Amino acid sequence: MAGFSRKSQMAFSTVKLDGISVVRAVAGAAILTACAAVHWQPLLAVFVAVALFVGTFALFHSRATQKGFLFVLGVLLAGYAFLGKGLAYLPAPPIFVGEVALGLGLLVLVAGGRPGPALRLPLSWLLVAFAFLGVIRTVPYLDEYGVLALRDAVIWGYAAFAVIVAQLLLEVGWLPRVPRIYGRCVPWFLAWVPIAFLIQLLARDLLPVLSAGSQRVTLPDLKAGDISVHLAGVGAYLLLDLHKISSRGRNVGMVIMQWTCWIGWLVGGFMIAAWNRGGLLAMIAGFVVVLALRPSRGLARVAFLAVVLATASFVFNLEIDVGYSRKFSAEQVAANLKSVVGGSEDSQLEGTRQWRLQWWREIIQYTVFGEHFWLGKGFGINLAYDDRKQATPDAPLRSPHNGHLTVLARMGVPGFALWVLLQGAFAFALLRAHFLARRARQEWWARVNLWILAYWTAFMVNGMFDVFLEGPQGGIWFWSLFGFGIAALGMQKRDRKSWGVAQASPTRT
Hints:
two-stranded antiparallel ribbon; 22 helices; disordered N terminus
């Protein structure tokens, strides 16, 4: 190679290295494709072919692939918010859209070739430690439970989305775009929520069915608790005026849109509050975080509209009967609030509350004070059946209606302690970053930190009352938000030295 310039030699070495990588990718994909053909899973073979294309493209065009994946993930998250559980069953078993996105995200991440800034943050190492312990409590049960073990393990498995999102946002520099794009989706979401909820209640038989059997999943299939978390995020976004600070200027149209959004939010929030206790608490928790740390003038607007709605409900005895045991009325909202602390006169509300509390006490008894202290019961076993809460192991309920106690039951006290440490460290880091940004008069960052914290709080609260973090529509959203938070913390840590000079929001890209 004496006749080549140094630049040519470097280019040749790069091509040679990329060629080896391509050969490895082709060989690996060929093996996986052959396995898929042996097991007669054409859909899996198609997925492998797509993964081969994405992996090869990512080796040569990593930045374009990173941007493409972030766009695809954004569409997927919007789909989960608008369509709920129904989207999770597409395209067809054994391939699901969430797992496809996870596989492609890992391919794009690996194609980057080097550990990025996200993995150098202490919070990321806590996340890796939690996932590693999850692996230890899953692998021994794969032979016995197979896919069921992997299904239960998504509560830690989807944590990969946090690493993927954090890494790609920091490398591509798209983090400032996220609040602006989110704001554009807010009016559409608020208009869609009451429509979709009523369609599911009044015309569910007319919706397309994606999965029959013990679970009848339709499209859309929105759960009240899931909607409440996003309503909490939207409410925090509006209270913090992020729709103003992320846009150019202020005009009459924006003011009208803001009032319209709050009316839509109150209508959707009223429906959720009457239908689901956990959802009601999730919305309240999100608001409390914002109002405790950042009292907003927008609260007067919300309070005024809420008082008008509540007064009209009581004076005119507004009540919507959709044929279920619970109705949309102010009395039902009051009953749900009362049942949270006990003493409700509604036998159904009090019965479900006592059933959950009894199961949670049993989990604490056989972990904190029992034989499963160190390891838990692992991932794969049906907790509802093993804890004698249902008659057969094939019933759809597999975990208690509390994601935090699911971690305790399956990973033992050490796993639960690591979970609490991880979540606590995340919340503390956001609080610290919020106050540092306020001190430096970095208004945009201060509000974004608080928005993430309020959204995270709603996830934590709803996860206490529902099988939420254990599913794709909740788990992928939660860990993606977690990754967004890690990226925000990392970017602020990098730019903090310049805050004494520049006091504007991050550069829009």
